[in-house]
Design brief:
Largest sheet: none
Order of helices and strands: HHHHHHH
Helix content: over 70%
Distance between the termini: 51 Å
Radius of gyration: 30 Å
Shape: flat
Amino acid sequence: MVCPQFEESILNLDQLPPGERAAVEVHLAGCAGCRDFARDARGLDALLARRLQAPRLSASFEQRLLERLRAEAAPLSEGQRAERKRQMQAEFETALPRWRWLPAGRDARFQLLAWAVLVVWAVWMACRFLPRSAEIIGALGVVGNLQTILLGSLVGGIFLGLGLAPALVFRQFKRV
């Protein structure tokens, strides 16, 4: 098993300053778990180097990139600014219906308010009764990890219910 304080250093061994690298190498000489980890990391690096090829950029790529950056950074004329604003507004209005999944109107606002009240109530109930639940579980003779698991399951059930509630509350509404 790898020592947590050396894991990052082992992975970046080639980039370490000479003093740190020497300290890690001394540790590797005496720790079999870290030595195995370093061997596996080197093997993975070699495999990736053989299998993955870096993309080849054309000779003119850097020049084209610089020209495009300069063109994007150039100040726009008043007409260009107005046209760009019109384009962005059109894109926004086109994309907006896909994100309008919450219903509109007074009834919908009431449902959202009811949902918020339900969440606040559930959190209050959990804070109020979870300590008592821990006492009851402890009184049943359940202690240690099993008690933690049971309390975690109880909390998980509460939040699962809260997570599923919107699907039930808003089931008549669908995403556009």
